[in-house]
Design a protein that fits this description.
By secondary structure, the protein is an all-alpha fold. The chain is built from 5 helices and no strands. It has one domain. 63% of the residues lie in helices and 0% in strands. The chain is elongated.
Length: 134
C-alpha cells in the first residue's frame, strides 16, 4: 500500500482573509449583516425620518418668511435634505449600514428626498402667504 501524504497544517489567517475565504465559499456573495433586533432598525428608520421632517418643516418656515419663491425654494429643500443627511452621517460616524440595513453613505444622502417634499411645499407656501400676502 502506498503511504498517504498529509497536507501541512495551515497557519492562522487574519480575520479579513478568513472572511474573504468564507464569502468565496458561498458563491462569491458575502452574507448580509444580521441585526440584533428588527425593532431597533425600525426605530432608527423612524428617527431618521423624524429628523429630516423637522429640518424640512423648519427650513420651509424660514424660506416662506424670507420670501423665497420659485426654483430657489426647491433648491433650498434639496440643500436642507443634504445638510440634514450629512449631519446624521456624522452622528453615525460615516457608517449608516451599522444602523440601517443595506445603506451606503451615498444612498443614505439621496434616500427619502421626496418623502417630506409635500409637507415642505405646504409649510413653505403657508408661511409665505401669512407673511407676504396677508
Amino acid at each position: 500500500m502506498a503511504a498517504r501524504r498529509t497536507a501541512p497544517a495551515a497557519a492562522p489567517r487574519p480575520a479579513a482573509a478568513a472572511a474573504a475565504a468564507a464569502s468565496n465559499s458561498r458563491g462569491g456573495r458575502a452574507e448580509p449583516p444580521r441585526y440584533a433586533a428588527p425593532t431597533a432598525v425600525l426605530r432608527n428608520v423612524q428617527s431618521v425620518s423624524f429628523v429630516r421632517g423637522v429640518v424640512a418643516a423648519t427650513g420651509a418656515m424660514a424660506g416662506g418668511i424670507a420670501g423665497v419663491t420659485g426654483a430657489r425654494g426647491f433648491i433650498a429643500y434639496a440643500l436642507l435634505h443634504v445638510v440634514a443627511s450629512v449631519a446624521l452621517l456624522g452622528w453615525m460616524r460615516g457608517t449608516p449600514d451599522a444602523f440601517l440595513p443595506q445603506s451606503s453613505p451615498l444612498s443614505f444622502l439621496t434616500s427619502g428626498l421626496g418623502d417630506n417634499l409635500i409637507m415642505y411645499i405646504f409649510v413653505w407656501t403657508l408661511a409665505y402667504a401669512l407673511v407676504h400676502i396677508y
